[in-house]
Amino acid sequence: MIKKIYSDHPRFKSVKFHSGLNLILAEKDSKSTDGQTRNGAGKSSLVEIISTLYGGDLKKTSLMKAKDLSPYRFGMDIELNGNPVAIERSGDYPTKIFVKKMPENFLPISELDGEFFCSNEDWVKRLGHYCFGLSDSVAKIKNGPTFRSLFSYFVRSSKGFDSPDKWFSQQSTCSVQVSLSYLLKLDWKIAREFEGVRQKDKLIKALKEASNEGALGDILGSASDLRTEILLKKSRVEKLKSALENFRVLPEYQEKEKRASDITRQLAGISADDTTDKEWLSQLERALEDESEVDTARVGRLFNEAMIYVPEMVARRFDEVAAFHESVVRNRREHLQQEMSDISERISRRYAEKEALDKERSEILSLLQAHGALDQYMKFQIELAKHEAELVQLDKKLEATEDLDQKRSELKIGRHNLQQKMRIDYSERDEAISEAIIAFAEISSNLYDEPGKFIIDPTNNGPKFEFDIPGKKSTGKSRMQIFCFDMMLMKLWANEPNRPKTLVHDSIIFDGVDERQIAKALLLGAEMAEKHDIQYIVTMNSDDMPDMSNYPTFKLDNYRVDLKITDTDTGGLFGFRFD
């Protein structure tokens, strides 16, 4: 329970609290203009100071780190399970908690220049023990419940009024599930195990997505496609192996291949020469037929005609002329026969040469057909090695893909088993769940005609928390769901030996809420605070304070905190305006 919030800043307005309902009302100054607002009066700043003094991290944007405030200290007097404790913090020393009052051996204390301090980490651990019964071993568990993850539901920041199950909108699913499971007396370890499943599932989905987009194409693929590709690759490898086993290397393969080509060209030339000679021989045979026996009658006729026209030129006798003509014809026939004989001899010679060349070429081609070149053999070996390496890679890809598919199957089974485990846990803790559901319904029925519903659903993604207050949805009803939920938590922890005894609500919780529901909420808050011995701190603008005349037991003076803050430059919590 908080006793006092103070600061060594000369203008800061200290605040003293009491048990039960504590109302902090920001007034509108009589001299204020319509343009002035009480948003800077310090209501939310006071909530942030309380949260920070309870171990919140001091970040660059934190209030205490503001240039005008960081040199100063802000302190808090509290009571932890009957133990008086006083601590201070400063923006200039974000990790230190300055100890002003604390029971002996409460936590590890260091001394420097006559001043005692401890680390914020140790302070938070001790708060976790006194407020929620958290052991040091639990505090060390990754994704386990921590004081800050639990306490933030009791002192919500301005970002914690969007949904009852979250104290800020970006809170992780794991944090929500683990924290609320702990606060609702469920097995938080099961909720924590779901985070492990989610992380594995996230990794598998990322790998699959990367595979589909080609980023991991060398590692993963489609199992069915890979099996087909492996089958075809194996077939090609077997064919190459068989070809290499039957392959006989001929070192002079290229020379033989060249010789066979030369022979082919020679045979083509011989065939061309044969064709030419055979055509010439045919012509000579026809010419020889034309050279018949000597025709003396023809010679006689020619002689007589010559006598008529050129008698002076006829100087020889007829028989001499006939003999000469016979000699010419005989010589020509002998010449033709000799030429024909030469051609036939050339053809016969080429025929023999063709037979020899054709035989040689046939032997070479037969040899080439049965053997291969060394470079061709090496080429086969390189291709085989390449395909074998690709086959090994494909086998690895298939193995990795099948392993990933197996992990997905195992993950589904893991989810199912965890869900079953959670259902069994809920069955065994039915009393705690029923208490929470009934408490939420009773609290909400004090605000609205029908009771609200609080549902805990053991889904395959872990516990799911849903809230519903019947009637038309509005911002006001959403905020009242948070009010009912927070009050429910206070009631559930009311009888615990180690419990949070303070609940703080900023004025945001009543934004958009009907005046009648605000009145009922304040009345209910005051009654529950008194009944369960808790401290309920509420900040509001004075003109948002509803008319409480219908509730004679509600005396404003009994609940109002002695803190005057207004909308003027000097009337706020800090006594001055700063950036």
From TrEMBL:
<dbReference type="InterPro" id="IPR027417">
    <property type="entry name" value="P-loop_NTPase"/>
</dbReference>
<dbReference type="InterPro" id="IPR046919">
    <property type="entry name" value="ABC-3C_CTD10"/>
</dbReference>
<feature type="coiled-coil region">
    <location>
        <begin position="377"/>
        <end position="404"/>
    </location>
</feature>
<protein>
    <submittedName>
        <fullName>Uncharacterized protein YydD (DUF2326 family)</fullName>
    </submittedName>
</protein>
<feature type="domain" description="DUF2326">
    <location>
        <begin position="443"/>
        <end position="578"/>
    </location>
</feature>
<dbReference type="Pfam" id="PF20275">
    <property type="entry name" value="CTD10"/>
</dbReference>
<dbReference type="Pfam" id="PF10088">
    <property type="entry name" value="DUF2326"/>
</dbReference>
<dbReference type="InterPro" id="IPR018760">
    <property type="entry name" value="DUF2326"/>
</dbReference>
<keyword id="KW-0175">Coiled coil</keyword>
<feature type="domain" description="ABC-three component systems C-terminal">
    <location>
        <begin position="281"/>
        <end position="400"/>
    </location>
</feature>
